[in-house]
Amino acid sequence: MAHSVNRPILSVVIPSYNQLEGLKKTVNSFLGESEDKWLEIIVSDGGSIDGSAEWLLENVELIHHIRIAPDKGIYDGMNLGVEMASGDWVWFLGTGDTPIGNALVELREDLEIVKESCMLAYGVHLLPPREPGVPEFYTPIWNHTLKIRNTLHHQGMIYSRDLLANRPFSLKYRVLADYHLHLVLMKEGIKCNCSNTIISEVDSGGVSRQFTTDLYREERALKHEAIGGLRSFLFQGVTTRLKHLSKTLSRMLSK
Q1: Is 52 within a domain?
Q2: How many folded domains does the chain comprise?
Q3: Domain assignment of residue 5, yes or no
Q4: Number of other residues whose CB lies within 10 A of the CB of residue 254
Q5: Three-state SS string across the chain, please?
Q6: What is the CATH classification number for the domain harbouring 239?
Q7: pLDDT digits (tens, 9 = 90+) for 109-165
Q8: pTM
Q9: Residue 161: domain span
């Protein structure tokens, strides 16, 4: 991908709502990294009332773009962050998530040479406490396995800004809109380069790690829309219920 020297290579988008301590942790993890303007920090805050708004306004020198206003949820915040982004690439981190080790050095090297991909997928480290059955490390996979389970973690995804500008996250899905987007992109034949390199530590407690009935209902709905077909509809109806049962049993046995 051709890069203009007049804009950053990477835009880090942090959607936030009433998570002050996590917000501080994530923003501060990038201190000093934007001095040579290769990346920019963007915070899209949904109108927090826990002191986050005040902290953001007191630390404007750390953050390139700030939006503080009500939104329609995390994916709306992510879409709004993309609208503010000027980098060639976009990386989404939740409040409390941070880059790991030399991740930023490796990311910069990769993004400066990548030419033929709209997405790059990396591994992530899921911090404890982890729910039963959730692995400590998440390795990305971009193949037919994605139709069965979510093989990509959005804190490990680097997207072309142009890709996201034309395909925003669907607000129909409050928890798994990134999974829906990935299925749509795979169906379109979009290329994704996968690497086992771990680039982020993911804070515990994310809504997609709460394995509720509503989560699996949403998974069935998004797969029906993204994949289509009666055979797939029936297959996903069975597999999502089995996954839910497995997670429930794991939770019970861990007590």
Answers
A1: yes
A2: 1
A3: no
A4: 9
A5: CCCCCCCCCEEEEEEECCCHHHHHHHHHCCCCCCCCCCEEEEEEECCCCCCHHHHHHHCHHHCCEEEECCCCCHHHHHHHHHHHCCCCEEEECCCCCEECCCHHHHHHHHHHHCCCCCEEEEEEEECCCCCCCCCCEECCCCCHHHHCCCCCCHHHEEEEHHHHHHCCCCCCCCCCHHHHHHHHHHHHCCCEEEEEEEEEEECCCCHHHCCCHHHHHHHHHHHHHHCCCHHHHHHHHHHHHHHHHHHHHHHHHHC
A6: 3.90.550.10
A7: 999 999 778 999 999 999 998 877 788 999 999 999 999 889 999 999 999 999 999
A8: 0.89
A9: 10-254
Residue 4 within a domain? no
pLDDT bucket at 248, cuts 50 / 70 / 90 = low
Q: Is 158 left (phi over 0), alpha (psi -120 to 50) or beta?
A: beta
Question: 14-72 pLDDT, tens per residue?
Answer: 999 999 999 999 999 999 876 678 999 999 999 999 999 999 999 999 999 999 999 99
Region 234-249 average pLDDT? 63
1: in domain: no
